[in-house]
Write a structure and sequence with these properties.
Elements: H1 5-8, H2 22-26, H3 34-44, H4 48-55, E1 56-59, E2 62-65, E3 67-69, E4 75-77, E5 80-81, E6 86-87, H5 95-99, H6 107-119, E7 130-139, E8 146-155
Length: 158
């Protein structure tokens, strides 16, 4: 029996087009790799060094995208169109952005949809801080047990 790729794809529970780009704004840094900088250089038709200097900065021991003031959240990625809330470099975006949220659910989208339903207003934008913490759980399997990483979110404590 042949399985199709469609059967193996997890169901996605969010629609980025309906979100105010929370993921572009909440993280104080978006780490970029040399490959990401090369992608930016090609996208803008500039050298690697020019792209590195114009679009990234050093933050501790890593290169990160530069940020700008935001009309909704305090700061955001420099490549976010603040009017449309869309990525201006979508096809050249860094790997970490391509992988986000790295699972089938986006915690902010769940909050966004809930608040919009409760307020009966499709334009409401909840400004919240979602805090992730690592939970290690011991499983009892036939192979003697394993430690599994599970990421959960918890609302900001008042």
């Amino acid at each position: 029996m042949v399985k199709t790729i469609k059967d193996e794809q997890p169901r996605t529970y969010f629609d980025c087009a309906k979100c105010p780009a929370y993921c572009c704004s909440i993280y104080d840094r978006v780490q970029v790799t040399k490959r990401d900088i090369n992608r930016l250089a090609k996208h803008f038709g500039v050298s690697y060094e020019t792209a590195r200097r114009r679009y990234t900065k050093q933050w501790q021991d890593e290169r990160v995208l530069k940020r700008v003031k935001d009309v909704i959240f305090e700061e955001t990625c420099m490549f976010l169109d603040q009017e449309t809330r869309g990525c201006t470099i979508y096809h050249a975006r860094p790997g970490v952005c391509r992988e986000y949220p790295a699972r089938s659910r986006c915690a902010y989208y769940d909050v966004l949809q809930f608040e919009r339903r409760q307020q009966d207003d499709e334009t409401v934008i909840p400004v919240v801080q979602i805090t992730y913490h690592e939970v290690k759980k011991k499983t009892t399997t036939a192979d003697g047990g394993a430690t599994e990483k599970v990421w959960e979110w918890e609302p900001e404590k008042a």
